[in-house]
Amino acid sequence: MKNPYTPLLAGAALAGLLATPAHATLFAYEGFAGVSDGPLAGQASTGGLGFVGNNWVITNGAGGASTTEAAGLSYPGSYPGINTSIGGNGRVTGVTGDNAFLALNFDVFTQPAIDGASQIHISWLAQNVAQSTTDYGLLDAGTRTTFNLAAEYPRNSGIRINNTGGTSNNTLGTIGNSGNWNGSGGGAPTQSLFGDGEVDPEVVDTWGAFNFNDVNNIFTGNGGTQAGPGSAFYNPAAANYDGVDHLVLSINTATSTYNLQVNPQPDGSNDGELVWVHTDGSVVPFEFRAFGVEAGNDSSERAPGDMVFDEIRIADSFADAAGFNQIPEPSIALLGGLGLLGLARRRRA
């Protein structure tokens, strides 16, 4: 007997295919729903997807002053998608003599699904909130001004692609604010310029990638020849405390090609973009076992790393991670195997 609902079911299936990418899957989500102010270490996943049953574990140091915060972060005003922020947020903070490296492991179903996907997209909210060296009390303002000491950068902070899992600190690399982007190459600071009309003392809130490549640090900025803000060698995202950013990292898992966008838009524009192939003499295979975060201690006479983060989404399509479609999609398919860095800086009008 013919099923009278067959045409309706077929129509619904077709509509579903048109509305969403084929086989699109949201693998994991953490929004810190219902958390209160408290320690990050030992905090159980609250997202209900991909991380269920796991706690935030310490992978290096003693956790520093890392916490959960009930306030939560909000998507920036430029965000064009349908994702909404719920609940609280995480904060990873180093302290004197204590690094803060923590991770949230994937469950036994999610991890093999991620490793089997042809592409992975990671979306999250974050802001570097560490103090400047001067504000932290390690450098007096008079000395800084006299000698034009521009680099007020704190220690390292960011999110990590942990490739072993458990309590291991092994990682492919970090997306964040690298602690050693100081002023190399003729004295020009890599993150900021003192007296460029912005905050004084200047504190950087910008993004890049480090520990991914033979060249160690990868970022759209500097080879020591930049002329400051507006030049082709300056940082990919706006410097200083410009608020919470929405970041999306897209990865071609077969070729280990990565694309990082800061505040991406549907038309392909963004506040900064970085594309690279992960190499270490040869291409490094992509492996993702846990979502990690890090903040360095106050060594090297700098303030400890300190970053707030929230709304972690990991999917096999850009739309499922970011909450909107982007045309053109991130450049992760065509660069695989080229073995080179592509640097681009596109600022929205």
List the helices and strands and how they pair.
Blueprint: H1 6-19, E1 26-30, E2 38-39, E3 56-61, E4 67-69, E5 89-93, E6 100-105, H2 110-115, E7 119-128, H3 133-136, H4 141-146, E8 157-162, E9 171-177, E10 208-213, E11 216-218, E12 245-252, E13 257-262, E14 272-277, E15 290-295, E16 306-315, H5 318-322, E17 342-344
Describe this structure in words.
- There is one protein chain.
- A hairpin with an 8-residue loop joins strand 8 (157-162) and strand 9.
- The longest helix is centred in the N-terminal third of the chain and has 14 residues, at 6-19.
- The protein is globular and about 55 Å long.
- The protein is built from five helices and 17 strands.
- The chain has 349 residues and is mostly beta strands.
- Helices cover 10% and strands 28% of the residues.
- Strands 1, 2, 4, 5, 7, 12, 13, 14, 16 and 17 form a ten-stranded antiparallel β-sheet that branches. Strands 3-6-15-8-9-10-11 form a seven-stranded antiparallel β-sheet, with no helix packed on it.
